[in-house]
Every structure is written in C-alpha cells, then in structure tokens.
User: Fold these one by one.
Assistant:
Number 1:
Amino acid sequence: MLLELDGLEVAYGGIKAVKGIDLAVDRGELVCLIGANGAGKTTTLKAICGLLHPRAGRVRYDGEDITGTPSYRLVARGLAMVPEGRGIFRQLTVEENLAMGAFVRGDRQGVRRDLERVFEIFPRLAERRTQSGGTLSGGEQQMLAIGRAMMSRPKLLLLDEPSMGLAPLLVQRIFETVCEIAREGVTILLIEQNARLALEISTRGYVMESGTIPLSGPAAELLADPRVREAYLGETAAADVEPVQDRT
Ligand code: ATP
C-alpha cells in the first residue's frame, strides 16, 4: 500500500471530526472519499499531509510512518495536495505558480518538460502563462492548482473537491484530467461531494459520515448500493426500479 490510515482520529478541541478511521490506497489506484458537507473529509486530508496533528492513529506512506510530518517534507517525498479553494498565488503569473510546484526539484530539464506537459493537458493555462493567477476564472484556477501539484512529480496526489464551484462542463473537463493523470501512473486520493462522478472514475471508494466510514468497496459496487444511491446519488428508494438484493 502506498498510503494507509490506521485508526486515525482528529479533533478540534473537544469536537472529534474524524473518529478512528481505516483507509488504504494501493500504488496506481484512484480512490475516492465521498460524503456530505462536514463529514470530515477535509480534516482527514489535512491530517494525512501534516497540516493537522491526529489525536490517535497512524498515517503510513510509502512504507514509513509519517504521522505528524510537516507538509513541506512530504512534498519532497512525492506527496502533493491540491487544497479545497485551490490556494494559488494570486500575484504570481501562471508560469510562476507552476514553477513554485517544482521548487523541491533540481532537474531543470525535467521541470521544463513537465511545464510543457501541464500546458498540453491544460491549453487554457498555456494561453495565459504570463497572466497573474488572481485574474483567472474559478475553473482555470483549479486547473492551475492541479498543474502546480503535478509539477512536483507526485507519487500520491491528494485532491480536495476539485469540482467545487465549477460549471458542469468544466467539472467534466477536470475529471477527465484526473483520469489522465491517473493513467500516467500517479496514485490519487480524490475527495468529493459529487459522489456519482467520483465513483464513476475511481477504482474504489470510501463513504464518510460524521467522522466514520460506514461503507467502502469497489466503486462499481458502491454505485449500485441502494444506501449510497439514496443518500448520495439523489435517488429515492421508490424510484429504484431494479429489485434490490439484500446482500447482508
Ligand atoms: P466540506 O465538504 O464542507 O469541506 P468535510 O467533509 O471536508 O466537509 P471537514 O471540513 O473535515 O468536513 O469538517 C468536519 C467537521 O469538523 C465539521 O463538523 C466541521 O464543522 C468541523 N471543523 C472543521 N474545521 C474546523 C475548525 N478549524 N475548528 C473547529 N471545527 C472544525
């Protein structure tokens, strides 16, 4: 396993936001963590990448215990995160933002090649390479945030709600890109409220509710699961035309 959470518990003061969860992502997998607003998804991600200290449990990455390791150290070890709200540098140009993603790397030629690669994936960014980040549209900023994470040559990419606030067509484009990145061999943990889209592109999924993970499994099984369909895919049990088999 490239990433393993074992009994992870995270609290804000007296409030437990993550209540002892287990989660694993194997090399080459695209795994999603879905759940409603406030379920604890972002908190989990922050604990993985060292932005929050877990109260209990362990985070293992690439064979080592990284619990509590600061995020800047993890970037150098191939763990990159695209935060909710993107976190791009508004004053810097598109090209400078992308260069910041590669600051841990010494191979200038490789960085040059990857920059061109990001511009191939996102032609829109290439057209705007000298424009400052703050003047980009929401969708373009999301592309820039993903592009910047790609510049660190990650082994594991953590994506926090890449679809948030984007028009449906752009969401589609972002998800296609996530698939493309996965096909190139980057392992991805995708956090999403858009459960249907996330499950459609993932190999496996975890469902988070009030700090716990009541359901997990292959994405296709979760998509067919009546509990998931009712709670996360906007389908009512009454609209379920197929007979539901009780698998318990
Ligand atoms: P969203 O999709 O809204 O980001 P989420 O599943 O990512 O939801 P979290 O942001 O992880 O959920 O929040 C989990 C719980 O922790 C929520 O009840 C939230 O109110 C609480 N919480 C989050 N950040 C803080 C904080 N800084 N201080 C106190 N409580 C917090």
Note: The radius of gyration is 18 Å.
Number 2:
Amino acid sequence: MKDVLYVGVDDHEIELFEGQFPVENGMSYNSYLIMDEKTCLMDSVDKHFSEEWLNNVSKALNGRSVDYLVISHMEPDHSGSVVAFCNKYPNATLVSTDKSFKFLNQFYGEVKNNKLVVKEGDNLSLCKHNLKFVMAPMVHWPEVMFTYDEYEKVLFSADAFGKFGSLDYDDPEGWACEARRYYFGIVGKYGAQVQAVLKKLANIEVKAICPLHGPILDSDLDYYLKTYDTWSKYEAESKGVFIPTASVYGNTLDAANCLKEKLEAKGIKAIVCDLNNDSMTEAFEDAFRYDRIVFASVTYNGTIFPSMNTFIDGLVERGYQNKKVGFIENGTWAPMAAKVMNEKLSKCKNLEIIDIVVKLVSRLDDNSIKQIEELANKLA
Ligand code: FEO
C-alpha cells in the first residue's frame, strides 16, 4: 500500500478487553491515514491513547492537515479520541453513517466539526483514491460500515478480521487463534450479518484488509475471507471433540479425561476444558471450532454447576448450532445435569444429540467407564 500509512497504537496496559476478554498480549487500536490530494484518516483510537495517536498522525501528515476522518465504528475503543481529534483539527470533516453520528452525540455530546453522512454505495473522492462505503450493520454494532479504497483495492473492515494482541507482539500462533477467539467472543452472535457483508464483497477485488485490531492482511486474502465465511455460517472449522467440564472435586473431570483418552485411542482429537479454571473465552472459541462436543457437569443445587450454566448461556446467545452433542453428568443423590443441559441447549438449531448419557454416581466406576466407551464409539 503506497499511500496508506498506519498511525494506530498498541495497548500494553489493558488486561481485559471489553471488560471480559483476557488479553495478556495486549491489543491494538488501528488507525490509517490515506495521503492523497485530500488526506483522510480512518478511525481514531481508545481515549487513553489520544496523545500518542495524534502524534502519529501529525508525523505522518508531515506538515499537512486532515481533510476527513472516517468513523467506521462508534464503539469507544475506536471513537474515544474523536473529540481530541476535533479539537486539534476543527476544519476536518467527519464522515460516517447517520446512526454513527447519533451515537457520537450520545457518547460525547455535540461535536462542531462538519459532518458528512454516507450510506450504502456512496463515494468520497480524495483524488486518485475513491472511497466507497459498504454498510456492515451488526458487525459488530448497528452503525458499522466498511470502506473500500478502489484505487489501492484496500478494504477497511472495522472490527471484522481483527484479532487480540498488540501489533508488536509476534504471535507464534499466527492470525487464526486469537482472531477466532475475537470473532466468536465478540461478533459470533451476528453470523447472518457477517454473511450479508461477505456477499457484498464477493465481487470486489481486495488486495489488503485493514481491520481495526490486529495486523494488516495483505496476502492469501482468500484464506481470511473463507475462514470468516466458515465461522459466520457456524460451520465446524476442525474435526475433533471438545469437552467442556464443570467439576467440583475432580471426579467429573476424571470422566472427561477418560473420554479424551478413549477418543485419542481411536485417533480422534479431543480437548478437555476445565470451565472453573481455564479461560471461558477460549472455551467459546473451541466450542464453535470443533464439530463435536460433550458437556460434562456435576449436578449442583438441583441444576448444573454455575460455570457450565454461564458457558451454555454464552453459546445460546451466540447462536450455537450444527454440532453433534453428548453429555456426561455426575450426581451423588439426584443427578440432573444432563437433563438441564439438554433443555438449555434446546434453543439451539441443528444439534444432533447422542442418545447415550454417561451417568456418574459420585465418581468413575466400571459402569460409567463402559458408558464412556459407548459414547466414544458414537462420537467416532
Ligand atoms: Fe473494536 Fe466493536 O469495537
């Protein structure tokens, strides 16, 4: 990209993104500057980084001023420095959707800069660079829009295609792992809306994707688009059995690990997650990633353990679907977990429930091990 300069910032202080997603490797808030006859900034950054961002912008401008600030998404991790920008560049025109300007006012009060309201298919010419606006409602808020630079064939994709992690962190797992956790944690509920915008992009040549978080994607674009297509269709990305487990004294976890061993002996990938101690946001990611899942919970207060309750609620609200599902329950005097989990999941579409329920009475025994073997056969 010749005329598109990165002017965003890395956040190394943040521990929980959006107050709930652990980001031990930080977070980036991306912003880009398009240098043409007119200059155009793409989005601001979180308010804690206003000064650093404005310095980056000023250096990149090299003495010029800003003509336009395009606001793709009004969530405060991106809009938090708009007011600081307007104070420094009162003659710049803000470009965004009608809804976005309404949200701007709600968050920050009246902003005096000129405003240009754009809608689907509208254009903004910077001279060589013609920007075309593509509405992307609910990816991840209703006011979101993408911007396509026809000259350099760059797609500014708001939150889409973003990932956790600062840009100066060289992620050994590459893009997909933390992009998947980001997608299913934050955008996952809106698969239909992601599908709608992917269809609009189908006939556009894209040479680079510039998201608001994570690295610029400028090679193998088909892979990223195809992966987003898979995720937003709620199709399984990988073959394997995910086993989220809620255990109090370790007996239910023993059963989950027993199932894992039996599956692995059959050559099937199996992943056990201890919902009480492992990351819930990683658990959401893996639940969507694999094609099969076995929920293992102890019975607690006549229902399921709180961590499993939270986990299943999170799946249901994200539109969980299209899986083969098994259950392991434990109960010392009145096991209820499988029934409760099954009922909670009944709101999900297209789940194939396996007819064998593994029932532990306090701990693994010969009978429950036999049931686990039968469950493993059904999963295979
Ligand atoms: Fe990166 Fe939806 O904000």
Note: Residues 73, 75, 77-78, 140, 159, 212-213 surround MU-OXO-diiron (CB under 6 Å).
